[in-house]
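Handoff note, outgoing to incoming analyst
You'll be picking up this chain. Sequence as last confirmed:
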Amino acid sequence: SGCTVSTAIVPNQGGELLHPTYNVTQIGLGIGTQNYSCSSTGNYTSVGAVAELYDVSCEYFTAAFSNVSAEAYRLWAAAPTYYTESTLIDVLYAYRGTPSVPSILGQHYFVPNPTGSGLSPKWDFTSESFAGNNAAYVIGRTVGDIPSPDGSTNIDWLYLINVQGGLAQEVYRTNTTGGQPPAGCTPGSTVAVKYTSLYCEF
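Most recent structure output, in case you need it:
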């Protein structure tokens, strides 16, 4: 990022999420989907997420920052199926009257857990903001998890620590909007649920 956010404060809901050990290095707006598969008991279980992350670090000290995730979600939820995340970000910033559109930091997706079983979240900036740096990623492990203070239709806020990669030592997911699956399902079915959130890397 071209803007220093080392003094940024992560909203941790009065200490419900652990306070970060390090200073913030960058803040990304994630736009994508939370993905689910229906189990044999008729309940959705998470099979990961896919999102593009945009650099909103320079907005942190502006009044518009507090609702950028919610504004992005309103457009994302209503967007036609042919809209990509990049199309959406262009529309969002035209709507907000902002002269410059934030650059892509990288991608967020899930990979096999490098230290155990199941899947782990990965933030991968090796092909975008840190192109050519093969260590510019972080695979995280969740050590803090609280319900979104903005309603049960939103996925949880998370605090994660690094288990692999050189991008960050800690990641916070906050200001989430959307992403929760429907209540019931047909076993074997899958669903991708749109969401937005802020990701702070330390």
